[in-house]
Amino acid sequence: MWARRRRQGTDPLTCLLLETLPPLFSVCLITSLSWASYSLTPPEYVPLILLFQIQIIAQCIQFHRYASIVPTSAKNFPGYVHRYPSLTGRKEETQTTKWEECESCDMHVPISSRHCSHCRKCIRLKDHHCYFLGACVGSHNKRFFLAFVLYAALGSLFATLAILNEMSMNRNLFSWDGFSLFLPVNIAMYFYGQSSRIEIFYVSLLNFGIGAFLFTTFMLFMRPDKKKTRHHDSQKSKKKALEKAEKASNNNKATPPQKSKRDLPPPQPEPPKITSNWTKLEIPSDDENDYEDEDWDPSEISEKYVLEFKKAAEDRLKSYEETYMAEKRDDEDYMKRIIDGNG
User: Acidic residues bias located where (predicted)?
Assistant: First the structure.
């Protein structure tokens, strides 16, 4: 069990503390408030205190007795195949699956359930996990949980009123002594010799009793979360998948599919880039300073300039040919002298 939780990234020590300390704290608090109610109230209020205590114990027992755990049966066996109502028909979009597989429990569970890592079971219509009772609140035990919370709130209120009545006999709570009702202040007063141990105990019960009353009252008026179901999770995941698929299809429509390298045509030479309507005319020359590149307007170039450029190019080409032929003749003469032995 602890090895599985360690693999899931859950600290085993944290889980152990959450599963043991809150139930133990609630038992100690209920016992202490009950003792304070018995010892500080007149005898005529004892039946009312007994009613609160009996109801708290009975509702707690019923809460654990009617746990909303999904039991093991032939229907949720992992090898059981759940078919649709129509074996030949097609599944409708509005038709939901009745069962889904829980990887933690290793069995098929209803879609209205949700797995609890503390109870290590799947809970039907899980509302939340109550750490103070040590179990989950589901479809079967929710009414007992609400009854337990109601009587716990009334019992805590009755006990705090009894403690306030007792402390008002020894201190004027509407003066500076009223700050002694806070537990840190009362502990500091004890070290200065202005308080006693029994008073610290009563003040601690008063503070925790007020906190229990406020917390249980809040739980009574808290709206249940109807989205904590496996069906909601599956519908949410399906909605996200549909949105993702729709987004991908829109992107494919916007951008055409890219072809592979085999389908691509051979690369073509890039055409020359024309930056402007001006054309640069270069005239070859031995000296770079003889001619300079100038920007010409094609509309202003006359036939005379074209003929001059053409003639200059022909002269330059002719001089290159003469130079080449002279060098070639020199090389032939040199090779001939070497062959004859006169080199």
Answer: 284-299
- Give the C-alpha distances (Å, rounded to integers) separating 64 from 59, 222, 229: 9, 21, 21
pLDDT of 151 > 60? The answer is yes
Cβ-in-10-Å burial (0-12, 13-18, 19+) of 140 comes to middle
Tokens at residue 97, please? 């699956």
The dihedral region occupied by 241, where left means phi > 0, alpha psi between -120 and 50, and beta the remainder, is alpha
What secondary structure, in 3-state letters, does 201-242 show?
Answer: HHHHHHHHHHHHHHHHHHHHHCCCCCCCCHHHHHHHHHHHHH
The 10s digit of each residue's pLDDT in 172-198 is 878 887 888 888 888 898 888 888 888
More confident residue, 118 or 228: 118
pLDDT value of position 57: 92
The torsion angle over the Cα atoms of residues 81, 84, 86 and 87, rounded to 10 degrees, is -30
Structure token digits, residue 209: 């009793």
Q: At residue 153, does pLDDT exceed 80?
A: yes
For 317, the enclosing helix (H) or strand (E) is helix 303-340
Q: Contact 125/138 with Cβ under 8 angstroms? A: yes
Flag whether the pTM goes above 0.90.
no
Residue with tokens 């009545």: 165
State the DSSP H helix or E strand holding residue 295, giving kind and residue range, or none if neither. strand 294-296
How large a percentage of the chain has pLDDT more than 90?
A: 10
Largest CA distance in the chain: 150
| Contact between residue 5 and residue 118 where contact means Cβ atoms under 8 Å apart | no
Compute the Cα dihedral for 330, 331, 337, 340 and give only its sign. Answer: negative
What mean pLDDT do residues 103-113 have? 81
Which residues lie closer than 8 Å to 209 by C-beta, 6 or more apart?
Answer: 29, 33, 156, 157, 159, 160, 163
Assign 57 to helix, strand or coil: helix
DSSP character at residue 278: -
